[in-house]
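cron nightly-structures :: item 1 of 1
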Amino acid sequence: MLGRSQYPYLKKIYLVLFCGIACGFLIFIGQDILVPIAFSVLLAMLLLPVNKRLEKKTNRVMAIMISLSLAIVCIVIVVYFFSTQIAGFVDDLPTLKRQLNKHLATLQRYIYREFHLTRREQTEYLEQATSEIKDNKGGYIGKTFIAVTQSFFTLILLPIYTFLILYYRDMIKKFMIDIFSDKHKPKVQEVITESRLIVQSYMTGLLIEMGVITAINTAGFLLFGIQYAFFLGFLAAVLNLIPYIGMLIASVFCMLVTATTSNDLSKIIWVAVVLTVVQFFDNNIIMPKIVSSRVKINALITIFGVLVGGAIAGVSGMFLSIPVIAIFKVICDRIEDLQPYGELMGDEITYARRGKLLKRFKSRKKKTINV
């Protein structure tokens, strides 16, 4: 039996769970509207320092137009280089298809030798597995058309939303502060400021990380003679923006593409080696130094947040999950009743343990020198 004193605590837990489920449900049913706005907020926060500097020399409208134009030009340049690589990849699809058929024939011979399944039996199994896809071909085409249309409208709305957020940012900030009572306004101001700095640091760090990872991946692939080195290196860097899961997907895709472009098994192994070394370098040097300097979220919450974000809003939810968790952690750290949740999401225990280990190592080193 629970005492009466424990009921308020249970009510708090129920309230937190209800709010979390309600927010997830609202995001799920309204993701077509909320996801473009969320990306616009991130882009606006990323452009805010540049925009403030430009406002000192011109008016706000011109400053926003210039900063937004620079961002669009950078995005267009990246898309152009990536599209040229994709075009070269598409031109070689017939060759890749012939190479893939050779590998499939080798795999079929292996299956026949080990499991005594003839090619006809293997073909029947494949036809049964793909029958549902064939039956729903029209539905998949329709879904693909809708997805492409939604992406097109999102690209149109993104700069419009970003412009309006930057233009009305003072009014939005004033509204977010005024809806709270006077005694809570200082904490709200701290939350807004720290959230902005965290998101700016995170987004800037991601861009730097993506550039470094692209360069290292491309250099490694070129060193071992991997075809489509820049395309695979850049794709792996983009997928790496999705924590933990993205690099796994990139590794599988890059190895499959290499398997279809080369008969040399060593190249497939070298692709795996390059991506593994880069991932180790990224997790231990690039990510802590560049990205995680402000966003201190432990790996368990990161993976859980990425999976939940993917279940709610797809790939966009995976990417947005880390900034949302970081902002939520800032809010929890400022509210006394929610501080345990902030501690659960943080990585302070890991950093404290690293500090203790470093102190022990230094003390042992001093003792060794003295001896």
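cron nightly-structures :: done
The longest helix spans residues 185-223.
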